[in-house]
Design a protein that fits this description.
single chain, alpha+beta, Alpha-Beta Plaits, seven-stranded antiparallel sheet, 3 helices, 7 strands
Length: about 110
């Protein structure tokens, strides 16, 4: 089971900043491997999917129930269901959104 966040941004997100975002999260003993974040026991905490350009009008609203002016870049972040994983996911999503003129959608609305 996982928690999902989506970053919608006007600019194509640069996922090379993941290591920097994780380091700035304040969480200790985390490892970044590509688009994955692991804890000290090598348990997967977060997976970030490749950005996808959504150009079809109304598609974001159909999928998420929120209006968007397409085209937008869509990046999914899937966090393990642990408090630490969810904190890291929110931190990384907010960081990507801030850097790339975006916003964050979550299943819980938080």
């Amino acid at each position: 089971m996982s928690r999902e966040l989506v970053v919608l941004s006007r600019e194509q997100p640069d996922l090379d900043v993941l290591t920097e975002l994780v380091a700035a999260s304040g969480e200790a003993d985390l490892k970044v491997g590509g688009r994955y974040v692991f804890d000290a026991q090598d348990r997967l905490l977060l997976r970030i999917r490749q950005p996808v350009l959504v150009a079809v009008p109304g598609e974001v609203e159909r999928l998420l129930g929120i209006p968007a002016n397409e085209p937008v870049w869509w990046v999914e972040l899937q966090a393990a269901v642990t408090p630490a994983a969810e904190r890291i996911a929110h931190h990384c999503a907010e960081g990507l959104a801030a850097r790339h003129d975006g916003t964050v959608w979550s299943e819980s609305g938080q």
